[in-house]
Amino acid sequence: VVLRYECRQFPRASGYPEDPATGIAAAALAASLRKRGFGAPNDDKDTKNYRYEFYQGTSMGRRSKIGVRFDRDCDIKSKEKDVNIYISGLVDISSRKEEELA
């Protein structure tokens, strides 16, 4: 089971009005949802893997898909505190313009 959400991100301090794809925000939202009990294992045999899909940028005409998966449950009472978070994504490329990154 994969939970799917439509999201929007408004990074006020960034200088632009809306972000079409934000992996770190998706990971934080997935962790918050999982901690609050929203989510389900990938399948009945593997109860420790949880998956989420976030769609973002739709209202801007730049739809992206961000996948987030945890390797185990985010149980704050657990002695094991480390959780591996895997992020993947798809985005439509609107321009092939190359820019130099400083």
Any key phrases for this structure?
5 strands; mainly beta; 102 residues; elongated
Q: Could you describe the 3D structure shown?
A:
The protein is mainly β and 102 residues long. The chain has one helix at residues 23-35, and strands at 2-7, 41-43, 46-56, 64-70, 85-91. It has one helix and five strands, in the order βαββββ. Strands 1, 2, 3, 4 and 5 form a five-stranded mixed sheet that branches. The longest helix is centred in the first third of the chain and has 13 residues, at 23-35. The radius of gyration is 16 Å and the shape is elongated. The model has no long low-confidence stretch (mean pLDDT 77).
In terms of topology, how is this protein built?
Layout lengths: L1 E6 L15 H13 L5 E3 L2 E11 L7 E7 L14 E7 L11
Parallel strand pairs: 1-3
Antiparallel strand pairs: 2-3, 3-4, 4-5
| Beta strand count | 5
Radius of gyration: 16 Å
First-residue to last-residue Cα separation: 41 Å
Enumerate the spans where pLDDT stays under 50 for 5 or more consecutive residues: none
The outline comes out as: elongated
Mean pLDDT: 77
Number of alpha- plus pi-helical segments: 1
What's the main sheet like? 5 strands, mixed
- What portion of residues is helical? 10-25%
N-to-C series of helices and strands = EHEEEE
The percentage of residues in β strands lies in 25-35%
Structure class: mainly beta
